[in-house]
Amino acid sequence: MRKLFILMAGIAVIFMFAPTTASAECGLCGDANGDGQVDISDLVAMIDYFIEFEWPECPAAMNVDCIDGVLWMYDVTYMIDYMFNGGPAPCDCE
Length: 94
Description:
Radius of gyration: 12 Å
CATH architecture: Orthogonal Bundle
Distance between the termini: 37 Å
Order of helices and strands: HEHEH
Largest sheet: 2 strands, antiparallel
Shape: globular
Number of domains: 1
Strand order of the largest sheet: 1-2
Helix content: 40-55%
Number of helices: 3
Structural class: mainly alpha
Low-confidence stretches: 13-24
Number of strands: 2
Strand content: under 5%
Protein backbone atom coordinates (compact mmCIF):
# COMPACT_ATOMS: atom_id res chain seq x y z
CA MET A 1 0.00 0.00 0.00
CA ARG A 2 2.84 2.36 0.82
CA LYS A 3 4.51 1.74 -2.54
CA LEU A 4 1.25 2.54 -4.32
CA PHE A 5 0.90 5.77 -2.36
CA ILE A 6 4.48 6.77 -3.18
CA LEU A 7 3.93 5.97 -6.86
CA MET A 8 0.68 7.96 -7.00
CA ALA A 9 2.26 10.89 -5.14
CA GLY A 10 5.24 10.87 -7.51
CA ILE A 11 3.00 10.84 -10.56
CA ALA A 12 0.91 13.66 -9.12
CA VAL A 13 4.00 15.79 -8.46
CA ILE A 14 5.34 15.20 -11.97
CA PHE A 15 2.03 16.01 -13.56
CA MET A 16 1.44 19.13 -11.46
CA PHE A 17 4.18 20.81 -13.45
CA ALA A 18 2.78 19.83 -16.86
CA PRO A 19 -1.02 20.24 -16.94
CA THR A 20 -2.60 19.89 -20.35
CA THR A 21 -5.69 21.74 -21.45
CA ALA A 22 -8.28 19.61 -23.19
CA SER A 23 -10.64 20.66 -25.93
CA ALA A 24 -13.89 18.99 -26.95
CA GLU A 25 -12.55 17.23 -30.04
CA CYS A 26 -13.77 13.74 -29.16
CA GLY A 27 -17.33 12.59 -28.78
CA LEU A 28 -17.17 9.99 -26.01
CA CYS A 29 -15.68 11.18 -22.75
CA GLY A 30 -13.44 8.55 -21.21
CA ASP A 31 -12.56 7.01 -24.59
CA ALA A 32 -8.89 7.98 -24.46
CA ASN A 33 -7.81 5.52 -27.15
CA GLY A 34 -10.56 6.52 -29.60
CA ASP A 35 -12.04 3.05 -30.17
CA GLY A 36 -15.64 4.13 -29.51
CA GLN A 37 -16.09 2.53 -26.09
CA VAL A 38 -15.02 3.24 -22.52
CA ASP A 39 -13.18 0.26 -21.06
CA ILE A 40 -9.99 -0.75 -19.28
CA SER A 41 -7.85 0.03 -22.34
CA ASP A 42 -8.83 3.69 -21.98
CA LEU A 43 -7.68 3.68 -18.37
CA VAL A 44 -4.38 2.15 -19.50
CA ALA A 45 -4.01 4.89 -22.15
CA MET A 46 -4.59 7.55 -19.48
CA ILE A 47 -2.04 6.00 -17.13
CA ASP A 48 0.47 5.69 -19.99
CA TYR A 49 0.10 9.41 -20.59
CA PHE A 50 0.90 10.25 -16.98
CA ILE A 51 3.75 7.78 -16.53
CA GLU A 52 5.38 7.74 -19.97
CA PHE A 53 3.87 10.91 -21.46
CA GLU A 54 2.64 8.78 -24.36
CA TRP A 55 -0.02 10.94 -26.03
CA PRO A 56 -3.37 9.10 -26.33
CA GLU A 57 -5.48 8.91 -29.47
CA CYS A 58 -8.05 11.30 -28.02
CA PRO A 59 -6.59 13.57 -25.32
CA ALA A 60 -9.77 15.60 -24.82
CA ALA A 61 -11.58 12.45 -23.73
CA MET A 62 -9.23 12.14 -20.76
CA ASN A 63 -10.94 15.08 -19.02
CA VAL A 64 -13.61 12.79 -17.58
CA ASP A 65 -14.78 15.10 -14.80
CA CYS A 66 -15.39 18.07 -17.18
CA ILE A 67 -14.83 20.47 -14.30
CA ASP A 68 -11.82 22.48 -15.38
CA GLY A 69 -10.80 21.40 -18.89
CA VAL A 70 -7.39 20.38 -17.57
CA LEU A 71 -6.09 16.83 -17.41
CA TRP A 72 -4.99 16.02 -13.89
CA MET A 73 -4.26 12.82 -12.01
CA TYR A 74 -7.74 13.27 -10.55
CA ASP A 75 -9.18 12.30 -13.93
CA VAL A 76 -7.41 8.92 -13.68
CA THR A 77 -8.72 8.34 -10.16
CA TYR A 78 -12.18 9.36 -11.40
CA MET A 79 -11.99 6.63 -14.08
CA ILE A 80 -10.74 4.06 -11.57
CA ASP A 81 -13.65 4.92 -9.28
CA TYR A 82 -16.09 4.61 -12.20
CA MET A 83 -14.72 1.28 -13.44
CA PHE A 84 -14.06 -0.53 -10.18
CA ASN A 85 -16.15 1.15 -7.47
CA GLY A 86 -19.39 2.05 -9.26
CA GLY A 87 -18.59 5.77 -9.20
CA PRO A 88 -20.15 8.37 -11.49
CA ALA A 89 -19.77 7.87 -15.24
CA PRO A 90 -17.56 10.21 -17.26
CA CYS A 91 -19.32 13.45 -18.15
CA ASP A 92 -20.44 14.44 -21.65
CA CYS A 93 -17.38 15.96 -23.35
CA GLU A 94 -19.35 17.87 -25.95
